[in-house]
Amino acid sequence: GQQVMQIPQYQHVQEGEDFTTYCNSSTTLSNIQWYKQRPGGHPVFLIQLVKSGEVKKQKRLTFQFGEAKKNSSLHITATQTTDVGTYFCAGKGSSNTGKLIFGQGTTLQVKP
Amino acid sequence: NAGVTQTPKFQVLKTGQSMTLQCAQDMNHEYMSWYRQDPGMGLRLIHYSVGAGITDQGEVPNGYNVSRSTTEDFPLRLLSAAPSQTSVYFCASSYSPRTGGAWTDTQYFGPGTRLTVL
What we know:
Chain A is mainly beta. Chain A has strands at 4-7, 10-14, 19-25, 31-37, 44-49, 55-58, 61-65, 71-76, 85-92, 100-102, 106-111. The chains are: A mainly beta, B mainly beta.
């Protein structure tokens, strides 16, 4: 079945450093979504990428979808303590069933 | 709108007990899903539903049952609780508007239920 792998599992950075998390799918995706979960909270939708090679930005966050639509990345420039949390990618296969497969998540810790 | 609500927030069960985790949404979303979250495992799909009367299995369905009699409600039943089912359970709902020729959807998560099975 479809699998989505995400690395790294944990990342500790000094405030102001950059951070990147990577997501790889075993199958071609129709779209990929990114979510953020603050400690003790629930996942909150950040963005969705649909097109091959798509790049989207949200302030200091840059999201990319690979040309083959099998991988994606989230890059945060100049991290802040408010960026702390776990970032998940979630891939959706070609059929429209609403079924998303989540990666394991990357937990980001930012030292002030 | 309340969004997605889940009850209870916390629950402790003994092995072998049964219970139902409640999930409701007031956004008229077609799709609803149940996930469990365990350390290092991310969010794993248990069951999902694409509309009232339609359900299907996710990645880890064993030990759980679901039904979808209305658009709003999607309860998750643990038939005979086991310690391996200790986890945080999230319910989510989503819709799929067609955008630019491609299906898109966004998962709206409830606050979660923290379940401990002794």
